[in-house]
């Protein structure tokens, strides 16, 4: 069932999220979510994130903005951690969530900033465990 797009997606996924994260996600994979994992690896990582049309820094910032704007807060810490690999800075993150406040609402931006602060603090102390995320 694997194809070159899957392999490219897995490579990008490891580069962005880190080997440890992907290893945990792969170890947690079951027959129930295996098709979903293949789908996101091929499409999100092998198509969207693999594109060189924009930088990974820009893609990271867009992802954070979209997650916050749509209220998908569970994914934000994982993507905050990924900024260590994409080049998006804490200042970039702050700018992203200011944009969210104006265009999607202050409560969503406020929640996203809270998660960003917690995650960045954990990263600064070396506690970047993200075992709850499997994508």
Automatic annotation (TrEMBL):
Domain Carboxymuconolactone decarboxylase-like: 35-118
Superkingdom of this protein's organism: Bacteria
A Pfam family annotated for this UniProt entry: CMD
GO MF, any single term: peroxiredoxin activity
InterPro entries, sorted: 4CMD/NDH-1_regulator, AhpD-like, CMD-like, Decarb_PcaC
SUPFAM superfamilies hit by this protein: AhpD-like
NCBIfam families named among the record's database cross-references: decarb_PcaC
Name of protein: 4-carboxymuconolactone decarboxylase
Organism field: Phaeobacter italicus
